[in-house]
Amino acid sequence: MRWLRRRSKKLVAPTVPVDYPTGTCVQTEKGVFFIKGKFRFRVISDRILSSWHYPFVLSSTELACARYKIAGKLGFRQGTLVKDMSNGKIYLISENLRRQVVSPDFFDVMLFPRDKIIEVSPEEIALHKEGENITWQLPPTSLQAGQ
Fold first, then answer.
1. Strands 25-28 and 39-43, bridge-based pairing
2. What does each C-alpha distance from 70 to 43, 100, 114 come to in angstroms?
3. 119 pLDDT exceeds 90?
4. Are 47 and 74 in contact (CB under 8 A)?
5. Cβ contacts of residue 129 below 8 Å, gap of 6+?
6. pTM of the prediction?
7. Model confidence over 9-61: pLDDT tens digits?
8. In sequence order, which residues have a C-beta less than 8 Å from that of residue 20 and are 6 or more positions away?
9. In 3D, which of 55, 66, 51 has the Cα closest to residue 20?
10. Domains of the chain, residue spans
11. CA atoms 48, 54, 57, 63: torsion sign
12. Which of 127, 100, 23, 16 is nearest to 65 (CA)?
């Protein structure tokens, strides 16, 4: 049955300009990038990359990506919970904004998993502009209403 096995070739990164489809993630000699249209966005950390859950990152070269202008840095994926390790504040990334969670009831009511919070650096959190705080309170129970 040896003839059924395909021999795997060692893949060589392209050295001529390539038309990558939007949504592709590539790694060149200058780092990891997310391709969107005619632009590419630098991924500055493994934490940001893991928030996007890419199934793979393609090996590429700067020559292959020459058509794509570097437009900035990629932030965390929408819906990601992050904790600023410099001050302990927890944020939800929503509409590309960081929204501080200021009520512990948020986790109980909205069922966001606390164990999925990613600790991040101030540099990473600064990729997102500050949005409105998330304030959430449980409705009063009958015991609290009677007080």
1. unpaired
2. 11, 29, 34
3. yes
4. no
5. 96, 97, 98
6. 0.81
7. 677 888 899 999 999 999 999 999 999 999 999 999 999 999 999 999 999 99
8. 26, 35, 58, 60, 65, 68
9. 66
10. 13-73, 81-130
11. negative
12. 16
Residue with tokens 């949005």: 131
Which tokens belong to 137? 């309170």
Residue 146 has pLDDT above 80, yes or no: no
Reply yes or no on whether the pLDDT at 144 is more than 80: no
> Could you give the CA distance from residue 28 to residue 40 in angstroms, rounded to a whole number?
12
What are 74's two structure tokens?
């990629």
CA triple 120-123-57, angle to 5 deg: 70
- What type of residue sits at position 73? K
Q: Supply the pLDDT for residue 121.
A: 97
